[in-house]
C-alpha cells in the first residue's frame, strides 16, 4: 500500500512544523509527501525549502502557489500532482491535523482486512479528535427527507468496531484510492473553502464505498471555532450548490428556505446573534448558490472584517 500524503498549508507555520514531525515518525512511512503552500506570508516558503533538502525515507514534493486558492484549490493541486506518482492511496490532511504514530499503518491493516472480505473500497479515513473529545462532525451518513437532505454525524458507538461505513468525510485524514481519483477528477476548486470534501465524496461513492478506521487517529487542533465570519458565505453557498448538483429540485427549494430562516431572517439575530451585515451576506450566498456563482467572492474572503 503506497501512500502519498497531500498536505495543504496557509500561514500556520507553527502547526505545519508539528504536522510534518508527526509524519516523519510514522511506524509505516509514507512513500511521498506533497506539500501545497497556499501563498503563505509567515515564513512557510523558506521553511519548506530548507525542510525539503533534509534526508527522509519518502520523496518530498513542495508546491508554492502564487496566490491563496483556499483549501479546495490547495487540495486540488495536491491531488493533481499525486495522480502522477506511483501510489495506491492519497492521504489528505490540513496543516493543523496531527497524525498519531500508527495512522498509516492502521489504514494499511484496514485495507487488507476489507479486501479480504471482498469489500469495494474507494476510500478510507481516520477518526478525529479535537482535544480530548472525538470530533463526530467529520464523519457522516446522508439522510434524505421529503424536502431536504442532511449529513448526520456518526454516533460515538460506531467507533467501537474495527471499521464502519460512511458517506461523507472531511479532508482531515481522508485516504482516497488513486484509481478512483483518476476516474472522478480533482476536488472542486470553485468552492474555495468548505464542502469541497463533501462534494468529492459524492463522486467517490459512485465508484465504491468509504470506510472509517477508528484505530487510525488524527488530532485536529481547531479549538471551538464554529465559523461565524466571512467563512459563513462559503458554508452557505457551497452547501446549496452541492444540493443543487446532486439532488432533485424540491431539495434545493427546501434547502434554500431552511438556510434563509436559519441564517438570514430575524431568527438568526434572536437565536444566533447574527447582525444585519452577516445576515445580508448569507442572503447573497443563497442567491449565488442558486445561480451557480462560485469562486472567491470579491468582498467575502480572507481579510474581510465581517
Question: What does the model show?
Answer:
By secondary structure, the chain is α/β, with parallel strands linked by helices. The protein has helices at 13-24, 44-52, 70-82, 103-116, 178-184, 196-204, 231-246, 249-263, 266-272, 276-291, and strands at residues 3-9, 32-37, 59-64, 89-94, 97-99, 121-130, 133-134, 139-144, 149-153, 164-166, 168-169, 174-177, 209-220. The protein has 2 domains: 3-220, Spore Coat Polysaccharide Biosynthesis Protein SpsA, Chain A, CATH 3.90.550.60; 231-291. It is built from 10 helices and 13 strands. Strands 1, 2, 3, 4, 5, 6, 7, 10, 12 and 13 form a 10-stranded mixed sheet that branches. Strands 9-8-11 form a 3-stranded antiparallel sheet. 42% of the residues are buried.
The amount of beta strand, in percent, is 15-25%
Number of strands: 13
Helix-strand string: EHEHEHEEHEEEEEEEHHEHHHH
Q: Summarize model confidence as the mean pLDDT.
A: 96
Given helix and strand content, the structural type is alpha/beta
Distinct helical segment count = 10
Q: Report on the biggest sheet.
A: 10 strands, mixed
Predict the CATH topology of the largest domain.
Spore Coat Polysaccharide Biosynthesis Protein SpsA, Chain A
Shape: globular
Which residues sit in consecutive blocks of at least 5 with pLDDT less than 50? none
**Oligomeric state of the chains present here:** single chain
What's the gyration radius in Å? 19 Å
Helix content: 25-40%
The end-to-end distance, rounded to whole angstroms, is 45 Å
Number of structural units classed as domains: 2
Give the CATH architecture of the largest domain: Alpha-Beta Complex
CATH class call of the largest domain: Alpha Beta
